[in-house]
Structures are given as C-alpha cells and as structure tokens.
C-alpha cells in the first residue's frame, strides 16, 4: 500500500507592492487561472492562482551556476527563481515581455532538452519559462 504524500500543495506566497500589475501579469498575461480571491480590512487583498503541478527544486551553488551559464549566459539568478512549464516557450516569452516582464535571456535549448528563457517579472520574481522538448519518462 502506497503511503500518501503528507504535503498536499506547494503555495508560493509573494508580496506584491503593485498588486494590480502583478495580478494582471500572472493571471492575464501568463494565463494562470484564478482559484480564489479575498479582500479584508485596510485594502488587504489576496488572489490564489492555479499554476498546475508544483515541485520544489533544490540546487546546490554549483548547479545554479551551471544553469545560469546554460540558461542566461552566466547572468546570476536570484536566490529564488520561479519556473513555469509552458507549451510554447518562445510565444509565451514574447507575451510576457509585451505584458511587462524584463527579458534576461531569450529561449534556448538546454542540455536537458528543454527550451528555457529567463525574465524578471512583477513582484520581484525572477522567472524561467520552459518547454519540455522530450516526453518525461
């Protein structure tokens, strides 16, 4: 009998100074569906967006430097970088830039057979958009 995973969901909580711009970007530009939203006293607002399946990728400093070389011509990534798997990394990168993200690196094929781009998005998040080029086994 398989033991159920004790963690049911990974939720990344981000404080966004410009809440409306961040919401527009992540919900409308990247296309993350809105699951829930709440308002409270003092203009308190939160929106929970569905980002699909979540994983936590832990990398040591050598791995991060290697990814930075491959993905962004050696430009160092921030301590936390959010990676979104998309169907078309090139089109989604163009949409993200048009929607307000700053392009760090154009999409490029990686040695692990994905097409990755790097962007700086709203709310201080560094983003990787990646498209798997082979089916995961």
UniProtKB/TrEMBL annotation:
<protein>
    <submittedName>
        <fullName>VOC family protein</fullName>
    </submittedName>
</protein>
<feature type="domain" description="VOC">
    <location>
        <begin position="8"/>
        <end position="132"/>
    </location>
</feature>
<dbReference type="InterPro" id="IPR037523">
    <property type="entry name" value="VOC_core"/>
</dbReference>
<dbReference type="Pfam" id="PF00903">
    <property type="entry name" value="Glyoxalase"/>
</dbReference>
<dbReference type="InterPro" id="IPR004360">
    <property type="entry name" value="Glyas_Fos-R_dOase_dom"/>
</dbReference>
<dbReference type="InterPro" id="IPR029068">
    <property type="entry name" value="Glyas_Bleomycin-R_OHBP_Dase"/>
</dbReference>
């Amino acid at each position: 009998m398989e033991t159920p995973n004790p963690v049911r969901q990974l939720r990344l909580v981000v404080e966004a100074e410009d809440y409306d711009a961040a919401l527009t970007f992540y919900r409308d530009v990247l296309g993350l569906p809105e699951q829930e939203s709440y308002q409270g006293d003092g203009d308190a607002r939160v929106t929970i967006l569905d980002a699909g399946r979540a994983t936590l990728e832990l990398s040591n400093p050598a791995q991060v430097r290697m990814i930075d070389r491959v993905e962004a011509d050696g430009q160092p990534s921030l301590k936390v970088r959010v990676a979104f798997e998309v169907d078309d990394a090139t089109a989604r990168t163009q949409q993200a830039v048009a929607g307000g993200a700053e392009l760090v690196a154009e999409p490029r094929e990686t040695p692990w057979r994905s097409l990755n781009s790097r962007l700086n998005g709203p709310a201080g998040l560094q983003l990787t958009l990646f498209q798997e080029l082979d089916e995961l086994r």
